[in-house]
Amino acid sequence: MHFVVCIKQVPDSHDVKINPETNTLMREGVEAIINPFDMYAIEEALRLRDRMGGTVTALSMGPPQAEAALREAISMGVNAGILVSDRAFAGSDTWATSYTLSKALEKIGDYNVILFGKQASDGDTAQVGPGVATHLDLPQITYVRKIEEIEENRIVAERLLESGYEAIESPLPCILTVVKEINEPRLPSLKGKMAARKAEITTWGAADIEAEHDKLGLDGSPTKVVKIFTPPAREGGEMLEGEPGDIARQLGEKLKDIIIEAAS
Amino acid sequence: MSNDPIYVIDEKCVGCTLCTKVCPFGAIEMVERIAKIDLTKCTVCGACVEACKFDAIELREREVETQHNLEEFKNVWVMAEQFDGHIESITHELLGEGRKLANNLNMELCAVLLGSGIEPKAQDLISRGADKVYVVDRPELAYFSDEPYANVMIELIKEHKPSIVLFGATTVGRSLVSRVAVSVHAGLTADCTALAIDPDTKNLLQTRPAFGGNIMATIETPAHRPQMSTVRHKVMQEAEVDASRVGEVIIKELAEAILKSRTKRIRYVAEEEATVNIAEANILVSGGRGLQKPENFEIIRDFAKVLGAGVGASRAAVDSDWIPYSHQVGQTGKTVCPKLYFACGISGQIQHLAGMSSADVIVAINKDPDAPIFDVATYGIVGDALEILPLLTREFSKILGK
Description:
The structure holds 2 protein chains of 2 kinds. Chain A is α/β, with parallel strands linked by helices. Chain A has a single domain (about 1-215), classed as Rossmann fold. Chain A is built from 6 helices and 15 strands. In chain A, helix 2 packs antiparallel against helix 5. Chain B is α/β, with parallel strands linked by helices. Chain B has 3 domains: about 5-60, Alpha-Beta Plaits (2-Layer Sandwich), CATH 3.30.70.20; about 70-260, HUPs (Rossmann fold), CATH 3.40.50; about 285-400, TPP-binding domain (Rossmann fold), CATH 3.40.50. Chain B is built from 10 helices and 22 strands. Chain B has helices spanning about 20, 45-50, 90-105, 120-125, 145-160, 170-185, 295-305, 315-320, 350-355, 385-400, and strands at about 5-10, 30, 35, 55-60, 75-80, 80-85, 85, 110-115, 130-135, 165-170, 185-190, 195, 205-210, 215-220, 225-230, 250, 265-270, 285, 310-315, 340-345, 360-365, 380. In chain B, strands 11-15-10-5-8-9-16 form a 7-stranded parallel beta sheet, sandwiched between helices. Chain B has a 5-stranded parallel beta sheet with strand order 19-18-20-21-22. Chain B has a 3-stranded antiparallel beta sheet with strand order 12-13-14. In chain B, helix 5 (about 145-160) crosses helix 6 and helix 7 packs parallel to helix 10 (about 385-400). The longest helix of chain B is centred in the N-terminal third of the chain and has 17 residues, at about 90-105. At the A-B interface, helix 3, helix 4, strand 9, strand 10 and strand 11 of A face helix 5, helix 6, strand 11, strand 13 and strand 14 of B.
């Protein structure tokens, strides 16, 4: 079976800091990593391959540097990496991104399961997985916390809900978006690291995936950013001091109105 | 003129580096004292265009193919979310916000209600401000199912042409909305925390956090309709109930084929721990590694019970298997926005802060006076949460007369 896992390179939020003088993001030394949720998608794809046999391909849309993310995926055991990269993609919103990825997936063609992390840590939209499913007219199971069964033409997966979970059966091919609960991603092996260094990363541009130009980048994006700003930094407030019993009374006094209102 | 969406006019650039400083994405570099934009990093947000004092950076006008006559699209819609026949609180928040937008635009506020045996609930939506409720009452729609729900929304949108459609940024909302927006070629913005109408263009201005709340972006949809948003829980004010309000209930009959689903729910299991959905809670009490062992979560639960609060946790507590993942607050868990948040024995890593720093009031209890959680806390207590929480439980029981 062919498992395709879609990954995104994002800035490591560990490193993201705000410059208090200019109120902008400080980017020096910010490392680029694989989106944390995508790590679970990679791991699950590898486990499915171990179970069913076949191959795992990692697919990423991004700048040329995103090749590093694909190599990291290969170091974990992914068989091949494909980077979709083109100046024409600049300014893509989730509509155009879903379209671009779906065209790349059409070119790949023989996929059985397509996996995504539930959302990316920079944009936090959770829109691209279901968007790709729609462009490709595939069924989807979102927020997957466990895969119960998989056969040649059928999968049963558990979707995490706010109030519990549900087991959903879907024919294949289908799209899954996964949450953290699903597994614990493995570390790269030495053999994997060597494979990653040697691997040829396939790169496709807009022409290679036969994308229609008016559906790409800025022109293909219904939404437009009007303004970007930094929210006022949250100030540290008041430290309560004294004996523990005294602190409890002070806090009770301060929060009285809020808790009475919330309880009513 | 360049065909790139944004470009530098080399002759006007004086190499002052103002643009490199304001770019939130690190996409501009100076090459031989002239700004160069790296289009692979650029999101075309326009921050540099505004900052440049020499008009040296320009945005290309889009070749706007307005497929629709925008004037044809009227009214503000809210997707009502129901679980087991009960209307979810996010729906009341959407109605509260939707009413304001509809009044501003002089349009009607309409709700869409899908379910089985759900029709009687339409009146609830009217008393919370809806002028019209479109009801599709079918056994296939008893609970959320991706394809039938999306297909019904797509049909209704194509037929009635709403200008704005609001969904909750919930599991259901987020699974559904993208299928709908892609199909009808709408503009879609996720997890909005503020909505407004542009006084000149009448476009919907959608503001949302990105990069874990480190930056905010305001987004619009200039040439497509509808304008669709998912809205974060607990940010918008719930619509008040006015039982005397009247409205119209419209029962829609749709073709059988629209309700078909390739996926099938074979089992539903409610979470054993009977706590409130943490995204819905007005008050949330979260515990971290500082609680030392899983049994100590009982102290958190006791305190939460007195307050009628939800129970949350840091990643460290979840990874130690002290509490299920569905309670995790933060970047790889849930984003919450309660009125009051207690962080107990949580140091406040940036990944945790990303999930809770928009709470109205934050109380932090931690032994380490240098813990980063104190930088965002409204009230900070340096001490052992295990010692202080029982005292707080007693104090708040007294206040609430329990």
